[in-house]
Amino acid sequence: xxxxxxxxxxxxxxxxxxxxxxxxxxxxxxxxxxxxxxxxxxxxxxxxxxxxxxxxxxxxxxxxxxxxxxxxxxxxxxxxxxxxxxxxxxxxxxxxxxxxxxxxxxxxxxxxxxxxxxxxxxxxxxxxxxxxxxxxxxxxxxxxxxxxxxxxxxxxxxxxxxxxxxxxxxxxxxxxxxxxxxxxxxxxxxxxxxxxxxxxxxxxxxxxxxxxxxxxxxxxxxxxxxxxxxxxxxxxxxxxxxxxxxxxxxxxxxxxxxxxxxxxxxxxxxxxxxxxxxxxxxxxxxxxxxxxxxxxxxxxxxx
Length: 303
Prior knowledge:
- By secondary structure, this protein is of the alpha/beta class.
- β8, α3 (125-134) and β9 form a beta-alpha-beta unit.
- 37% of the residues lie in helices and 25% in strands.
- It is globular and about 65 Å long.
C-alpha cells in the first residue's frame, strides 16, 4: 500500500512566549510525513529552493519517506514567520514569502500515480484537483486540508475538488466558514452534500471531533505540562490519523476513532518542542505508551 502527500516544505521563523526559532524546518508535507511514516511508508511531492541543504534532508533520512517527488529548484524555499501569544490556538502571521512555492505545480512521478491513499495538503484547490486528475486510478480514499484563504477566495475550485474527496480535515473556523453553520452537526450535513463522507474537526488544545455516516466521536487533546510551539500540530494530527488508517487498511467508524487518538497523540509530541525537534526524537515505544495512556484516560467504565 502507498500513501502520497502533496503539500509544502518550508522554513519557519517562530516566536512563542516560551522562546523562538529562526529558519526552522516546517511545512505541511514535512509534519505530515514525519508523523505518518511512524505507521506507514509515505511518498512526498513538494518543492524547495537552493537553501534546502543536507542538514534539512537529514531529518527525512532513515525513515520510510520517499522523496522522489521533492523537487529542488533555483531560488529560496517557502518561508513563514509567525508569533503566538499565550493563546496558542491562534498564530499571528508576520511574513509569508512564497518564493519557489509561488510557481509550484505538482507533477507526480509515474510510480506515485498508482498510490492508493492520497492526502492533499493545504495548497491552492486548483492544484489539488490537478493532482487528483494525475492519478492513474482513483485512490481507495482521498483526504484534504484547506484554509479560510481558499474558502473565501477560491470557492468554486474548492467545491470542485471536494466532490472527489472522502475525508475533510479542517479546524472549527474553517468548517464554519465553509458551511455558514455554527452547529458542527449541521455543518457536517452540508459537508456531506459537497462530497466528503467523513469530517474531522481539529480543535487544537480542545481536542477533535469526528463525524461519519455511522456515528460521531469526540476526544480531548492529550494533556501536557509543557507546550512550546503549536506550529504543525494540525498536519501532524493528519499524518498520524491517515498513516494509521493506511496501515490498518480500514475506514470503518471504529478504525476512525482509533485513528483520531493516534493523530492526537502524534500532535501532542509536536507541540512539546519547537518545529520538528520532538517528532525527530520520539521512539515507537513512546508512541505506544502515550497512546495506551490516552486510551485509558478517556475510557469510561460501566456504571
